[in-house]
């Protein structure tokens, strides 16, 4: 019998129910790599479908990745030139850090390979990454600055995201561009790449990476809207921002936030699992 694959540690959360016996999402435990692989692939597809719902598509741009649980030197990603809304389990591709497709029928996005492979290879603890050319994230990235803690939502990224200025505005198809990005991507869950856009990474799950990308795009939109008023916003204090980040900005909370998205997609788009 296959050994059970240990699930990521579930950190105690203020959102955990105080009563037993109630319906509440729990992190799964797998009987083996095959089960965990299918789980990761299905959630990767759901993340792509969620990006479609959020209208994050821009031609063939945008790539989401998750490591294979058995062969961590390989990662699953969405196929080149397939709309986020059409990604399904059967058309995912498995890619190595050299950009070679090991499994699947479609080509790999060169930019996706360069950026994601560099980060995955440099940081074995990073399980998943997300990037898309979004409207507000790209606009905010042009400012070359970090988010301000203008709300509890924004505070979830307080001291947990960085601004990457290296290779700003350059198409990331050369390996040195990927190396520059991965050098900065240490100990944080998100990055604002100047003149390019947003990236998120998770050491927990594809669900966490996907939700924090959605949240980061939303925070960029909110800050741009506030600044457009010309009125200086009141910021959450550093102490309270750190408290909020700890309690509502963790990997586990990101995973938890994605669960209603998963349930909605399973009920409305069952073809994604084919």
Write the layout of secondary structure elements.
Blueprint: H1 33-53, E1 63-67, E2 74-77, E3 93-96, E4 101-103, H2 110-122, E5 128-132, H3 135-141, H4 152-155, E6 161-164, H5 175-184, E7 190-193, E8 197-202, H6 206-228, H7 238-248, H8 251-268
Parallel strand pairs: 6-7
Antiparallel strand pairs: 1-2, 1-5, 2-3, 3-4, 5-8, 7-8
Helix pairs in contact: 1-6, 1-8, 2-5, 3-6, 6-8
Overview of this structure, please?
This protein is an alpha+beta fold. The protein has a single domain, classed as L-fuculose-1-phosphate Aldolase (3-Layer(aba) Sandwich). It is globular. The N terminus is likely disordered.
Outline of the structure:
The protein is α+β, with helices and mostly antiparallel strands and 274 residues long.
Task: Quickly list its features.
alpha+beta; L-fuculose-1-phosphate Aldolase; 8-stranded mixed beta sheet; 8 strands
Under the CATH scheme, which architecture would be assigned? Answer: 3-Layer(aba) Sandwich
Supply Rg: 18 Å
In which range does the helix fraction lie? 25-40%
Q: Counting H and I runs of at least 4 residues, what is the number of helices? A: 8
- List the quaternary state of the chains: single chain
Main sheet properties: 8 strands, mixed
Low-confidence stretches: 1-8
């Amino acid at each position: 019998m296959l050994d059970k694959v240990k699930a990521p540690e579930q950190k105690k959360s203020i959102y955990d129910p105080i009563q037993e016996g109630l319906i509440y999402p729990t992190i799964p435990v797998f009987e083996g790599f095959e089960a965990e692989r299918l789980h990761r692939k299905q959630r990767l597809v759901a993340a792509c479908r969620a990006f479609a719902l959020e209208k994050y598509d821009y031609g063939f741009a945008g790539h989401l990745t998750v490591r294979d649980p058995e062969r961590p030197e390989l990662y699953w990603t969405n196929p080149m030139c397939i709309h986020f809304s059409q990604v399904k389990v059967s058309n995912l591709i498995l890619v190595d850090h050299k950009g070679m497709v090991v499994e699947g029928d479609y080509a790999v996005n060169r930019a996706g390979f360069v950026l994601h492979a560099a980060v995955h290879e440099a940081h074995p603890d990073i399980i998943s990454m997300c990037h898309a050319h979004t409207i507000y994230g790209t606009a905010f990235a042009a400012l070359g600055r970090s988010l301000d803690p203008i709300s509890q939502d924004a505070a979830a990224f307080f001291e947990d995201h960085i601004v990457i200025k290296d290779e700003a505005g350059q198409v990331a198809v050369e390996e040195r561009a990927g190396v520059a990005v991965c050098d900065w991507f240490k100990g944080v869950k998100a990055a604002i790449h100047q003149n390019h856009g947003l990236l998120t990474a998770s050491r927990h799950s594809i669900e966490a990476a996907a939700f924090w990308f959605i949240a980061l795009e939303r925070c960029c939109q909110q800050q741009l809207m506030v600044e457009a008023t010309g009125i200086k916003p009141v910021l959450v204090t550093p102490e309270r921002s750190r408290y909020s980040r700890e309690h509502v900005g963790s990997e586990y909370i990101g995973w938890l936030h994605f669960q209603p998205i998963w349930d909605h997609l399973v009920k409305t788009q069952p073809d994604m699992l084919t």
